[in-house]
Amino acid sequence: MKYASDALVSFAAAALTKAGMHAKARLVAEILVEADLLGHDTHGLALLAAYVGELQRGTMLGSGEPEVLRDSGAVAHWDGRWLSGVSLVVAAIDTAAAKARLYGIGAVSIKHAHHTACLQAYLERATRQGLMVMIASSDPGSSTVAPFGGLDPVLGPDPIAVGIPTGGDPILIDMSSSITTNGMVARTAKEGGRLQGQWLQDNEGNPTDDPAVLSGHPLGALLLTGGHDHGQKGYGMALTVEALSQGLSGHGRNGGAKRWSASVFVQVFDPAAFAGTDQFIDQTDFLIELCRGSRPRRDRGVVRLPGERALASKKSSLRDGIELRHDITAQLVTLATKLGLTLV
Predict the structure, then answer these.
(1) Residues 31-66: pLDDT tens digits?
(2) What is the percent of the chain with per-residue pLDDT over 90, rounded to a whole number?
(3) Which of 137, 162, 11, 20 is nearest to 86 (CA)?
(4) For 210-236, what is each residue's pLDDT tens digit?
(5) CB atoms inside a 10 Å sphere around CB 189
(6) How many CA atoms does the CB half-sphere of 86 hold within 13 Å?
(7) 29 and 119, same structural domain?
(8) How far is it, in rounded angstroms, from Cα 244 to Cα 223?
(9) Can you give the three-state secondary structure of 116-148, one letter per residue?
(10) With contact defined as beta carbons under 8 Å apart, do 26 and 35 qualify?
(11) Domain shared by 168 and 128, yes or no
């Protein structure tokens, strides 16, 4: 069954409101549905029931604003006070964008945020204004990724996203420092399946597609992007993300809370402050033409840009409705019953 995106936003907002989130409920709902529109269904409405539970337990704060600990012109540092990471990232993008209009670059670091959902879902908020944006997020309380050459998991999947404005649709980059995500591994394990590749390693370092190694004893680990062969690349990315998000915010693995949380770094660039917006668009559009003009491999058919498939998914889902996975629909129906709502 397909659902209109507006109806799903209204339902999610109502569920969050019932759980104790008020002013920001619709904003959070919009980002969750945006993730599903873009095709990232492990980081969209699949998270709603968990968010509701966190609100009900008081481990996610439902109202209030972040505390501004420091603001020095182009840079700000916030304590998120365990508010929704979704609402905090939106606020940070808006704040960093305003700073970028003044200074060319604006940045916000956030400690004590809750989960941030799908990073790609935020990027158009900046790129549609002609601004370039970067978001780095990590959970100091989660360790599921082993360092390159190691066996014991000490890092997280550590995603980073970059939105690049162009003369047309923006480039929307969203990548994890690990080959796959915790959400995908958990879903596959619940279904009793195997991953599509050997994206994990067991506790002895053997590559495997068995998601059970991430919940066994002793623990296995997610493999870094590049795997056993070139995992130093994902390792470097993970260290960079954790330095940007945890190091700059001051909330990291050294003394970090063992709870579902996020440390976040948001930076926005205004091309007008550098060589100029026209020059920026000219260069990015020319680069796009070069990429698309490259002869595609026989098994690929076409050369795409990051985010192109996601935006095509969004366009068709806005037109025809979002088709949710059966397990996500079942979760939403159960949640609706518990909260006295109706999933339309």
Answers:
(1) 999 999 999 999 999 999 999 999 999 999 999 999
(2) 94
(3) 137
(4) 999 998 888 999 999 999 999 999 999
(5) 17
(6) 28
(7) no
(8) 21
(9) CCCHHHHCHHHHCCCCEEEEEEECCCCCCECCC
(10) no
(11) yes
Whole domain around residue 142: which residue ranges? 68-179+223-293
- How far apart, in whole angstroms, are the C-alpha atoms of residue 45 and residue 269? 30
CB within 8 Å of 46: residues ≥ 6 apart: 183, 187, 325, 328, 331
Q: Could you say which DSSP state residue 149 is in?
A: T
**Is there a single domain that holds both residue 138 and residue 22?**
no
Is residue 234 classed exposed, middle or buried when 0-12, 13-18 and 19+ CB atoms within 10 A define those classes? buried
* Domain CATH number, residue 315: 1.10.1530.10
Per-residue pLDDT reduced to its tens digit, 271-330: 999 999 999 999 999 999 999 999 999 888 899 999 999 999 999 999 999 999 999 999
Same-domain pairing of 95 and 167:
yes
Residues 6+ apart with CB under 8 A from 289: none
For residue 231, what is the DSSP state? T
Helix (H), strand (E) at residue 207: strand 207-208
SS3 assignment, position 329: helix
Find tokens 């940007």 and name the residue.
Answer: 244
**212 inside domain:** no
- According to DSSP, residue 274 is labeled T
Q: Is 300 helix (H, G, I), strand (E, B) or coil?
A: coil
Q: Taking CA 306 as the corner, what is the angle to CA 302 and CA 307, rounded to the nearest 5 degrees? A: 105
Would you say 12 and 18 are in contact if contact means Cβ atoms under 8 Å apart?
no
Residue with tokens 């069954």: 1
pLDDT tens for 86-99 read: 999 999 999 999 99
Dist CA 233 CA 227 (whole Å): 9
Same domain, 260 and 230: yes
Could you give the residue ranges of the DSSP H alpha helices within 122-231? 124-127, 182-190, 227-230
Residue 21 CB partners (closer than 8 Å, separation 6+): 28, 55, 60, 62, 63, 84
User: CB 270: neighbour CB atoms within 10 A?
Assistant: 22
